[in-house]
Amino acid sequence: MKLFEDSKNSDYADERIKMQRLTMINQAYAIVMLILMVSILIKQFVYNLHFSAYMTEFIAFFVASFYILIKSCFLGHRIYSGKKRLALILTPIITATVITVLSFLGNLEHHQRIQEFWVSASALVITFLSSLTITFLIMLVIDKASRKRNKKLEEKFEEE
Questions:
Q1: CA–CA gap between residue 102 and residue 18 (Å, rounded)
Q2: pTM for the complete prediction?
Q3: If you ran DSSP here, which 8-state letter would residue 45 be given?
Q4: Distance in angstroms (rounded) separating the CA atoms of residues 111 and 52
Q5: With contact defined as beta carbons under 8 Å apart, do 95 and 135 qualify?
Q6: Taking burial as the number of CB atoms within 10 A of a residue's CB, which of 41, 81, 116, 143 is the most buried?
Q7: Mean pLDDT by 10 residues, the chain (160 residues)
Q8: Which residue in 133, 130, 152 sits closest to 141, CA to CA?
Q9: Residue 82, phi-psi category: left (phi > 0), alpha (psi -120 to 50), beta (remainder)
């Protein structure tokens, strides 16, 4: 496809055209990821299908996400810097909330059968706190790896 070809050989390709091409690819990626996530949620919660019915979308979504994350760290991009530092705090909270709500909705029938409210509420609190802790720890490790790689690349650049 000509869209993905490198335009180094092109006499008239300038930085603006390259940026537009990269922006289009970035937007296409975002659209595909959104479609995958919507497909997963619809198959899981609307149609109540087994995991095997949406396993392909699940794998594609998370492999692509992890690839972008790992590649960004490897290239030394600071993932959580400047204004994005707030994301280091908000992302675990949002993720834990989503996991807790999805857990509640997935086990709604079980929660309705439980006679004691505190048993159900404590399960949800434990789900929230464990999700929050795990997500926060993962993000800290990613941030530390990103900073370490960035520092290593800066040192290499200064030596040259």
A1: 41
A2: 0.64
A3: I
A4: 25
A5: yes
A6: 143
A7: 55 78 93 94 87 92 88 77 73 88 76 67 90 91 84 83
A8: 133
A9: left
